[in-house]
Amino acid sequence: MTVRLTVVNPNTTESMTALIEAEARRVAGPDTVVTARTPSMGPASIESHYDEALAVPGLLEVIRADQQADAFVLACFGDPGLDAAREAASRPVIGIAEAAMKTASLLGRSFSVVTTMSRTVGRARDLTRTYGLERQCAGVHACDIPVLELEEDRDRTYAVILAFAKNALAADGSDAIVLGCAGMAGLPELLTEQLGVPVVDGVAAGTLLAESVVRLGLHASTHGELAPPPPKAYTGVLQGFGRR
Ligand code: 2AL
């Protein structure tokens, strides 16, 4: 059975989409076709509530236009617009924060998140509550590398994340690390080796969870709250969004 996954990078930086696609393809099974997509509008990176809000129309446009995918992965750690994406898709949509945190919760008693900018810490904490993982999340640590700088010097990024992860494990007494940005995809293997604890990247975890639910023959619940939104008039630049 062939599984078609669309991995949406909710920011508009193509090089980051390429990184995300490479990691999703690396972990996906042989009969899984992975396509990564970049929205036509939105912020170059997502590291504020403002960025998150304005990333949502672009990612919804990608999802609404894609009738081929069996499931979607939303590849930004704030899981922007996840509920709206589920309503719009009527197929499984997996957010990478949800995927990484839920996977980490299976592997140890507690995890620490190592994320990008300090201002994203509150959002990560909110998500632990949303996903019922507040008790398992022992701490959220910001390395203060802007999202787009993660790509610039991978050796420096790796060294900084390693140092923050070591400190997080010691300070929090946790036993797993969750990486808090899609731009950290590809780092876990080496980090796991160095740290001796599971290091979970949401792009990899989200891709395999999306693949799993499809292979299990499970479809998204469109019952009740997650039914497709009722058509209605949308105006201005959002005009096209009111139609199914
Ligand atoms: C992210 C992410 O995963 N992509 C992006 O643009 N911003 N998350 C983050 N915490 O900085």
Topology:
Blueprint: E1 3-8, H1 14-27, E2 32-37, H2 49-65, E3 71-74, H3 82-89, E4 93-95, H4 96-105, E5 111-115, H5 121-130, E6 137-142, H6 154-172, E7 177-180, H7 188-195, E8 199-201, H8 202-215
Parallel strand pairs: 1-2, 1-3, 3-4, 5-6, 5-7, 7-8
Helix pairs in contact: 1-8, 2-3, 4-8
This protein binds 1-(2,5-dioxo-2,5-dihydro-1H-imidazol-4-yl)urea (2AL).
Characterise this structure.
By secondary structure, this protein is an alpha/beta fold. Helices cover 41% and strands 15% of the residues. The protein contains 8 helices and 8 strands, in the order E-H-E-H-E-H-E-H-E-H-E-H-E-H-E-H. The strands form 2 sheets. It has a 4-stranded parallel β-sheet, sandwiched between helices. Strands 6-5-7-8 form a 4-stranded parallel β-sheet, with helices on both faces. Helix 1 crosses helix 8, helix 2 runs parallel beside helix 3 and helix 4 crosses helix 8. It is globular, with a radius of gyration of 17 Å. The site of 1-(2,5-dioxo-2,5-dihydro-1H-imidazol-4-yl)urea (2AL) has 14 residues, from loops.
